């Protein structure tokens, strides 16, 4: 019986090879090895980029902001940064699409992949989250999914608030610096905000507590996952007021500042990671806190 | 001499069938690993927090805290998921390249005999993984077919029909062969305990990826 279906078997095998070739890290390994062997260029993405349905993309940083971002237009700013367009023109389009498609992520997907693809993804996906929408689309949509993910990530970051009062000054900015305790030049992956012990720390956006723990280096540390590849971290606290897995709202008091861990005095180390890469939090704010010398880590 | 495409294709099935089975399992393993990515990240965070607290207890081990620091943990979690997927590929997909087809009735009978001879759950892990991972792969390939056709032809009914047909054909034509080959291979396979450690979570993840 089986030997009468060679053409069907060939067709099905070819489909599986096509899917594995373009859609799996194992396929990417074979493609890369083939390209190396025949000295050609490969179109395979980095192996780790095959996870998260193609939405885990390294951030492309926008220029510093000239003015404040209205929270309702944060996504438009994110999309504009990727398209190199105007957020003022994109905002009403995104609002219309969001109303029609029922979610902000779907609206962004419609901007980058087309409305038909977005509508199809909504019909097929388990949820309206970008990762699920992307999972419903075929491999050829990968480039536009990557651009959508970039825009969503930047938009989410533009919508973030600030963990401490605006008057609190920066004691150590983001960037490579000489470490105050260990010595030697290292990347300071966040910014230090000098403040008295016990100052309330506010969640900069809604999210889930991914880590609430304590160690001798970071002190009492809190990590919030805001979705869309955006994670914020708060170190050296005196007390943590939330627990692992808890959902927090924007502005909620989540900790009290302190000087726990490897620190020279009371301060908050605030860090933003986009797709696992630390970025300068000031890049996403028009207001710049003043700097002063003081406690750091 | 009469030109018979089917006959000619039939002569090279020993090449494309094993490759197709291996690819099907690889797609399924990726679908399974991808769907639990967030849970892997959660687990890495828990383990990282535990070790950070441990290493920072002594000054000479404190630098280890920065080894998988706040920034590296996402990369590390993805690398764990990738390593898990590649290990699953090696344990489930690669052995399918050894598929050697027999006459259908004989294959079913042999498969049943191999199934009845399983005495330990550790032996059953690989065939069970082959079944669920291949099914996950079939769902994934069918979904890709539907998406590609829908966005190329804009015919919703046709894309849905193609998806259903692909799923049924893969489930009937390729999945049983993958399970048969895995049953055959499981008898002589070594490292059963490490394989079970890798594959048992994959069974759950594969089921989660079904849709």
* Helix and strand composition category of chain A: alpha+beta
CATH topology of the largest domain in chain A: Glucose Permease (Domain IIA)
Largest interface: A-B, 65 and 70 residues
- Give the uncertain stretches of chain A in residue-range form: none
Radius of gyration of chain B: 21 Å
Shape category of chain B:
globular
CATH architecture of the largest domain in chain A: Distorted Sandwich
Tell me what portion of residues of chain B adopts beta-strand conformation.
Answer: under 5%
Unreliable residue runs of chain B:
none
Number of helices of chain B: 8
The helix content of chain B, as a percent range, equals: over 70%
Largest sheet of chain A: 10 strands, antiparallel
Cα-to-Cα separation, first versus last residue of chain A:
72 Å
Give a structural overview:
The complex is a heterodimer of chains A (297) and B (211). Chain A has 3 domains: 1-50, no CATH class; 57-159, no CATH class; 169-284, Glucose Permease (Domain IIA) (Distorted Sandwich), CATH 2.70.70. In chain A, 33% of the residues lie in helices and 22% in strands. Chain A contains 8 helices and 12 strands. Chain A has helices spanning 6-23, 25-37, 74-83, 87-101, 104-113, 115-124, 130-135, 142-158; strands at residues 169-172, 175-178, 185-188, 191-194, 200-202, 207-215, 219-227, 230-240, 247-248, 253-257, 267-274, 277-279. By secondary structure, chain B is mainly α. Chain B has one domain (16-208). Helix content of chain B is 79%, strand content 0%. Chain B has 8 helices and no strands. Chain B has helices spanning 5-11, 13-35, 37-55, 72-93, 104-116, 121-153, 156-188, 192-208. Chains A and B meet through helix 1, helix 2, helix 6 and strand 6 of A and helix 1, helix 2, helix 3, helix 4 and helix 6 of B.
